[in-house]
Amino acid sequence: MIASTSASAALTGFLLGLGLIVAIGAQNAFVLRQGLQRRHVLVVTTICAISDAALIAAGVAGLGTLVSASPVLLTVATLGGATFLAVYAVKAALRALSPGSLEAASRDEADLGRTVAAALAFTFLNPHVYLDTVVLVGSLSGGFTGADRLAFALGAMSASAIWFYSLGFGARLLAPLFARPVAWRVLDALIAVVMAAIALSLVRAWLAMS
Questions:
Q1: b/e map of 47-80 (b: 16 or more CB within 10 Å)?
Q2: How far apart are CA 77 and CA 99, in angstroms?
Q3: How big is the chain by its Cα radius of gyration, in Å?
């Protein structure tokens, strides 16, 4: 039973992490561009993956603990998270109805120092990264305890790492595909479904605790 619940928690964290990270944005465009140019791809993807993991760990260890210690905060976090995910699902659905394309072409980033600085800037100067990792993932982790919370965090971290490495090293294959609006239409539609499903699961969990 413990293994089963941990696997479920890991899957929830993985799907949440994947849904949050897979979207058109400056960071993904930067990783894709570096992959296309084959410039320090391993460095860039590793910086992004480790940064996300650190932020998720901070959220789970700090905010997640605080939330789990208070039934009131747990309720607020659960319902707040469900609401946020529902809104996120709606936005993803709207993007699917009116998709954009990802512009990967840009100037050459040959210098390693400048590339590292750019990767850190695209990660830590983006306000949404804190909402997604420290606040949202950290708060939702409060619904899990012990091994399940760790599994949830590892699931979210794994999703982030898999996405960044796949995007960076598979860029030459992905770029032509995701330059087409129809590809983002399908992707955003899938994100909408995943986020809506997780939001519903959170509401069910809250109702079960009430």
A1: bbbebbbebbbbbbeebbeebbeeeebbeebbeb
A2: 31
A3: 17
One-letter amino acid for residue 108 of the chain: D
* Tokens 């659905």 sit on residue: 93
Q: Which residue has the tokens 């932020």?
A: 55
Report the run of H or E that residue 51 belongs to, with start and end.
helix 41-58
Q: What is the pLDDT of residues 66-122, one digit of tens each?
A: 655 677 777 777 788 788 788 888 988 988 887 665 555 445 446 888 899 989 988
Q: Are 166 and 178 in contact (CB under 8 A)?
A: no
Handedness of CA 52, 55, 58, 59 (dihedral sign): negative
For residue 177, give both structure tokens. Answer: 């595909």
The Cα 90–Cα 101 span in angstroms is: 19
Residue-wise over 17-40: b if at least 16 C-beta within 10 A, else e?
Answer: bbbbbbbbeebbbbbbbbbbbebb
Tell me the one-letter amino acid at 93: A
